[in-house]
């Protein structure tokens, strides 16, 4: 995919020895408008650009992270751009996904319910060892908060998920979100996607 090659930063040269280059398919789920595209663009391009939204079709971006032991992890990030509505596409979307990021908007209880729906879907149809992260986005909108931090945290804990609140706008916890995934990877809980 040409776009992903252009957008993904080149991984460090593999000098041999113990160096490993790993690929992780990561799928993004959550209600429309919770900020999925903005989270990815913040992570991959380091900017907040609400106007560059993909409205039709799934978008695909990649980002490579270098770990301290010269391993590189290339995240292949799949953003549905609303196509999660079409049940027929779901198996294709989830197939081979090692990590699922399920996002909601902390100002929208409806989006929190929808996130719970996606968790159940993944528990039914995703790979049994998929790693799931629950993300409460728009954490910069504290004065409009309608989902308590504890509610997100409790739900994530009950479902064996990681939990983090982020802001794609201010960049708060965006890198930390993806570090969660690569830490997991290095301790061997996430099977490589090949
Ligand atoms: P998606 O449909 O889930 O991909 O959502 P988008 O990434 O297109 O974002 C939807 C809207 O939410 C846009 O207007 C963004 O400007 C806004 N948005 C996204 N992330 C944040 C955030 O962290 N804070 C605030 N205040 N707005 C955000």
From TrEMBL:
Domain of life: Eukaryota
BP GO annotations: intracellular protein transport
Region (Disordered): 1-18
Endpoints of the signal sequence: none
Keywords: Nucleotide-binding
This protein's GO CC annotations: endocytic vesicle; endomembrane system; endosome
Molecular function terms from GO: GTP binding; GTPase activity
Record flagged with keyword Nucleotide-binding: yes
UniProt protein name: Small GTPase family RAB protein
Species of origin: Medicago truncatula
Organism ancestry: Eukaryota, Viridiplantae, Streptophyta, Embryophyta, Tracheophyta
